[in-house]
Write a structure and sequence with these properties.
The structure is a single chain. This protein has two domains: 85 residues, no CATH class; 101 residues, 2-Layer Sandwich (Muramoyl-pentapeptide Carboxypeptidase, domain 2), CATH 3.30.1380. The protein contains five helices and six strands, in the order βαβαααββαββ. A four-stranded antiparallel beta sheet has the order 3-4-6-5, with helices on one face. α1 crosses α2 and α2 runs parallel beside α5.
Length: 213
């Protein structure tokens, strides 16, 4: 029998806290009640890295967002959740963030971006369980962009869509690139498992843009 996939407590706590910051406590409770996740009402997971939250809880939560807010509303909300999650994650792991910031001071912008993307790949393997023998996240560098290949992202797992659905991850990567480089960079999901692709693939432009939008 396959073991149930799990994510770490800090990740789920931060997702819940971020949604609450955006839609308010009553809005979050309404989403949790709608998705039959009442166990999280007023009771977030503890602030640690133990793999104790079923991935299906996170999938159910964001499926409920799509049903309640529709595709357009959920995409905008998911981008905000991703950005806020990245911000909360940096603040919640301030020692790691400080070390990254210090290491990035004297290197070119593209190397800063690559350094943080490598760290994202490394941390992903610690925050989720995976049934794949391949690395969950792979980073490729090209002349004008990076590709982040995610083989087991819960947002797309088991879903079907004619458009990419991993907008939380897009928002997260946008904020991380802004934080490490001091400039905004376009992030697009160019392949998605929900569309029938074998992996979720995100293109991160090396060129700067005016702002997070």
């Amino acid at each position: 029998m396959n073991e149930e996939k799990m994510i770490d407590n800090f990740l789920m706590k931060t997702y819940l806290k971020t949604i609450q910051n955006i839609v308010g406590i009553n809005g979050l409770n309404s989403v949790l009640n709608y998705s039959h996740l009442q166990k999280y009402v007023g009771s977030f997971p503890p602030d640690n890295g133990k793999l104790e939250v079923p991935v299906t809880d996170a999938q159910t939560l964001f499926a409920a967002l799509y049903e309640l807010f529709g595709e357009t509303g959920t995409r905008a909300l998911s981008l905000r959740v991703g950005r806020e999650f990245a911000r909360e994650g940096i603040e919640g792991r301030s020692a790691m963030a400080k070390a990254l910031s210090l290491a990035a001071r004297l290197i070119p912008e593209e190397k800063k971006m690559k350094m943080l993307l490598d760290r994202v790949a490394e941390q992903t393997d610690k925050m989720f369980t995976s049934h794949s023998d391949l690395p969950e996240v792979e980073i490729q560098e090209h002349d004008d962009h990076f590709l982040l290949i995610h083989r087991d992202r819960f947002e797309s797992d088991g879903r079907k869509s004619d458009k990419p659905v991993c907008n939380i991850y897009v928002g997260m990567l946008e904020y991380f690139m802004y934080w490490i480089s001091g400039a905004s960079h376009e992030v697009r999901e160019i392949e998605c498992r929900a569309m029938g692709n074998p992996a979720d693939v995100f293109r991160i432009s090396k060129s700067k843009r005016e702002s997070l939008s």
